[in-house]
Amino acid sequence: MIPKTMKACQLVAFNKLEIREVPVPTPGPDEVLCRIRAVAICGTDPEIIFGHHAKKGWPPRFPFTLGHEWAGEVVALGPNVTEFKVGDRVAGEAHKGCGACENCLKGRYTLCLNYGKEEKGHRHYGFTVPGANCEYNAYSTKALRKIPDNLSFEHASLLDTAGVALHGIEMIGVTPGGTVAVWGPGPIGLCAMQMMKGMGAKTVIMVGRKHRLKVAGEIGADVLIDFEKEDPVKRILEITGGKGVDEIQECSGASVALKECLAAVRKGGKINLIGFYEDSKVLLPPITSIVMNEITLTGSRANPNVSDRVLNMFAAGILKGDKVVSHTFPLEKYEEALDTFVHRKDGAIKVVVKP
Ligand SMILES: [Zn+2]
Ligand SMILES: [Zn+2]
Asked: Could you say which of 8, 241, 298, 308 is the most buried, measured as most Cβ atoms within 10 Å of its Cβ?
């Protein structure tokens, strides 16, 4: 039986969350109602809560239910749904494009030209329309994937994070047998590291510090460089005989990272940026070196068209959620979960809430 009301953790004003009793949504055409079993806190969630994204229209109103990295079960079908049945275990993507604009038609639905226009069918769950920090939510079937039986809801809530990593990797590829580097052993960087290893890189170097760097070593990074203790560029040039690495995924968002990456990549090498930067503070590298050394420099946003392959990597054991998901809390303790995540308490990496 699906109840009429449910608990939701809602943002009622900037910096103010409340557990409220709200109506359970009804799935519309091509939507299903899901029972949320696990929702991971993303780096953007606290930024929205603190009011840093107000200009982008996140949240669009108060009260608003955040949460976009989730897994759960299908409990009811809306009209026209044939792709899913009640009881299916699923995980969600945050973006659902309008399906009709030039970018959506090219498969680039995270760059939908009708972003935020609900009447055009666009959804950005947990950003422009309600998300998963609650017991039930209705989702377009386009934003859902069935998850393997051997994957827990907690780990499946990494679908979005791991997908961001895979989309970034696909922008520039991985040289089989090559040497690659990841800057930033946060949740995205730890997923990227495991995937690049699984995709055939011989040596994966992780640049970071403290507990997260140690975890990177425990789950497969070949070389750990603590930037507080040594110069990452110098060490990478030593390891590669002065050549530099083939590809770099920059997941740290640090102001110095781009400059370091350009000095650590080989001639003809490739760098993809995933981090969010404080633009005014970014140290610009010598731009001409990009020209002279034919460096490919790309940015990647979100996780279009990668979810099925991310789930295959989970199923195959290439990608593991162990140690990336470090903490779980019940929904009622959302604020404690948020505090643990934001302040990286007790070695927190990815913090998952279970409604
Ligand atoms: Zn996210
Ligand atoms: Zn579109």
From this structure: 8
**Residue 126 burial by CB count (10 A; 0-12/13-18/19+): exposed, middle or buried?**
buried
Ligand nearest to the CA of 157: 1
Q: What's the whole-number mean pLDDT along residues 211-227? A: 98
| CA 44 – ligand 1 centroid, Å | 6
User: Quick check: 168 and 272 in contact, CB under 8 A?
Assistant: yes
Residues with Cβ within 8 Å of 61's Cβ and at least 6 positions away in sequence, in order, are none
Mean pLDDT of the chain: 97
Among 1, 72, 4, which Cα is nearest to 355's? 72
Distance 353 CA to ligand 1 centre (A): 14
Give the amino acid at 107: G
Contact 143, 93 (CB under 8 A): yes
- Cα-to-centroid distance, 220 and ligand 1 (Å): 23
Kind and range of the H or E run holding 307: helix 307-316
Please give the domain boundaries of the chain with CATH numbers for all domains: 5-158+324-354 (3.90.180.10), 164-299 (3.40.50.720)
Gap from CA of 101 to ligand 2 centroid (Å): 4
**Ligand 2 center to residue 130 CA distance, Å?**
19
